[in-house]
């Protein structure tokens, strides 16, 4: 059994959960658009596999990490970032499209953007009777 400090999401993103193994061969295409369009980059993705217990109704999560290097990836102050994740066979797994506006930020400052996709598992059959704050499971997350 795993114990989390805070949410599962925060535990994984902050390195407080040990991966079981890594999976090789994933790639991502990174692009942005706005007042200018930087060149798209295809980058290797280091993918970590986690297990969160012995419950067969909970999918085991993966976490992908992309290293942009020292130069990073220069984007317009306002626009859209697109990250397309490919499996080792080259098939698209997920396309993230994240709109952002950094025009109010001072020069040389840092921030992060996060987009989540949540789902309700199939084994919960009557979702109409659930309250709006019912537990949902994290399906996809991009943290930029």
From TrEMBL:
InterPro entries attached to this UniProt entry? Atos-like_cons_dom, ATOS_Transcription_Regulators
Domain Atos-like conserved, by residue range, is 4-63
Matching Pfam families: DUF4210
The protein's name is (California timema) hypothetical protein
Q: Which organism is it from?
A: Timema californicum (California timema)
| High-level lineage | Eukaryota, Metazoa, Ecdysozoa, Arthropoda, Hexapoda
